[in-house]
């Protein structure tokens, strides 16, 4: 066994949200004299990898010379597993080793569509006839859910989606959508009295805002 057996292992980890991307670079320092033999030459490897449950393949790989860690397969999903731990090894030319743990945290990507909390909302509202124009009073709050962590929900009434859609509009307030009347609702009007039926839609506009 040659020279200095101990070494310090430095790790730099970059968060990721997809596959075949660079995670980070590990770097080891060897106290042996690099000008004498190969004892100071360091080779990197992964001693304890993470195995994909479905395929049985290793999720990460490391370049033996540069120490660059990359994903080895597609695709990593933060909503399924937000964090991975792998154990890396640096081995010198004399066979001495230094180990370290790399923690890989996945950054969130806006890759899930929002879902409305319900498929159908039914309600009764007062008519606005004789009270002047509608005053933007909220008559219904609609909510949605999304598995992504960063969301900016935008709610709207879908045009031409059913009877009476043009009488209503929506505003987005935080995570909810508020429905309100923009035209007179008259109980004495036979068609109004039979009710209105239309569709509302929610979209996640995080990617638009980031762009």
From TrEMBL:
Pfam families recorded: Cadherin
Gene label: CadN2_4
PROSITE patterns, per database record: CADHERIN_1, CADHERIN_2
InterPro entries according to UniProt: Cadherin, Cadherin-like_dom, Cadherin-like_sf, Cadherin_CS
Matches recorded under PANTHER family: CADHERIN 23 (PTHR24027:SF438), CADHERIN-23 (PTHR24027)
Transmembrane segments: none
Organism: Portunus trituberculatus
Main location: membrane
Location of the protein in the cell: Membrane
Annotated ranges, domain Cadherin: 23-116, 117-204
Protein name, as recorded: Putative neural-cadherin 2
GO MF annotation list: beta-catenin binding; cadherin binding; calcium ion binding
Keywords of this entry: Calcium, Membrane, Repeat
GO BP term, pick one: cell migration
GO cellular component: catenin complex
